[in-house]
Specification:
With 250 residues, the protein is α/β, with parallel strands linked by helices. Helices cover 43% and strands 15% of the residues. The protein is built from seven helices and seven strands. Strands 3-2-1-4-5-6-7 form a seven-stranded parallel β-sheet, with helices on both faces. α1 crosses α7. It is globular and about 45 Å long. 43% of the residues are buried.
Length: 250
């Protein structure tokens, strides 16, 4: 991890849960973390906890492309560019596609797929402009791998996570063609104890004690960032130990 000391990481959904845990872990390794979220008050609290010299809060609605572009302009002016991108922000649904209105579906796709694609585009261009080493990490879900085994209604959530897996593959193809020194990793966690998924666990009657913790995912982020330059972990699945198929099946 020494090679990332003093570098700049951009983390979406950094005001709580997995995003906050990832931000804390990155900062503990001397990485400057720019935390994005819509709630500035929570970001300010995170900065006070992590350290204002290591965590830099920026309000950004990632479903608005103009706000993403403005954020990258500010980052370039103040920090020089982005070296690590963690696409963590996402929204969840417990609904049927056939009962969802178009705006609900569009909002989910914009948050879970289009925003990561735009953020990755801007981060890659920042890295290419400086000819620097970089790493893009997409936080997906086992629903993006084993949707056939999950028989509860999730609307467009599962399709959006499948598409996020495909986005990582496409980015890797483009990076290879352009001969850039950028790694792409997709992390697919099993059930993690977060506020966003609280409704799901209540629906499934799952005990919180059997779930992954947000810091577990943060440790995986540090693990993939710490791999040698010659090693790229394309995809990694993280399940609660000891649950077997129950980590996937409701």
């Amino acid at each position: 991890m020494n090679c990332w000391n003093g570098k700049v990481a951009l983390v979406t959904g950094a005001s709580g849960g997995i995003g906050l845990a990832i931000s804390e872990a990155l900062a503990s390794h001397g990485i400057k973390v720019i935390g994005l979220a819509r709630r500035m008050d929570k970001l300010v609290e995170a900065a006070a906890m992590i350290g204002k010299h290591l965590f830099f809060p920026m309000r950004c609605d990632i479903t608005e492309e103009d706000q993403i572009l403005g954020t990258f302009n500010t980052i370039e002016e103040k920090f020089g560019g982005v070296d690590i991108l963690v696409n963590n922000a996402g929204i969840f649904s417990l609904s049927y596609v056939m009962e969802s209105d178009s705006m609900e579906c569009q909002d989910l796709i914009n948050t879970n797929l289009m925003a990561p694609a735009i953020l990755a585009r801007e981060a890659m261009n920042s890295m290419r402009k400086r000819q620097s080493r970089g790493h893009i990490i997409n936080i997906s879900d086992i629903a993006g791998l084993y949707l056939e085994a999950i028989s509860i209604p999730m609307g467009m959530y599962g399709p959006s996570k499948y598409a996020l897996q495909a986005l990582g593959i496409e980015l890797r193809h483009e990076i290879s063609a352009a001969a850039l020194d950028i790694k792409i990793t997709t992390i697919s966690p099993g059930y993690v104890r977060t506020d966003m998924l609280k409704r799901l666990y209540t629906y499934m009657n799952v005990s919180p004690d059997t779930l992954l913790k947000d810091r577990d995912i943060a440790e995986i982020v540090i693990y993939v960032l710490g791999t040698p330059g010659s090693v790229e972990i394309a995809e990694i699945t993280v399940l609660p130990q000891g649950l077997g198929s129950n980590a996937i099946l409701p």
